[in-house]
């Protein structure tokens, strides 16, 4: 297995732990931010594993779709959902950190517990699928 892919997945797991802690503390924007980082690292690990050099952007969903044939069939079935999660959380990345400054909205104004729980659940799904892919890296 690619050492960087393994490292990315390990760091994605750390982001999940941070997101869970933030949820328990009521830091909902941080949950969204850490969940996005988990998704980004998890998907980049998957792309590295199949030899794809991805762009240095936060949302790699389009690359995942374009390169879907490199993955085993069970993972290909999930690509559209994974790409949508990547897009959605990447769009929330900056607002979860900075809010919407022009509107005078803080991150706490923008994200509530439901948003945080949804982001975390989606990140857990992506990380779980990435981990399965890396464990089965003999395709």
CATH homology superfamily: Nucleotidyltransferases  domain 2
Principal-axis shape equals globular
Using the coordinates shown, work out and report the CATH topology: Four Helix Bundle (Hemerythrin (Met), subunit A)
The average pLDDT is 96
What would you call the structural class? mainly alpha
Q: What is the rounded Rg? A: 15 Å
Largest sheet: none
CATH architecture: Up-down Bundle
Note poorly predicted spans: none
Say how many strands there are: 0
Instruction: Please give the count of helices.
Output: 7
- What is the percent of helical residues? over 70%
CATH class: Mainly Alpha
Distance between the termini: 12 Å
Strand residues, percent = under 5%
Order of H and E elements: HHHHHHH
What's the number of structural domains?
Answer: 1
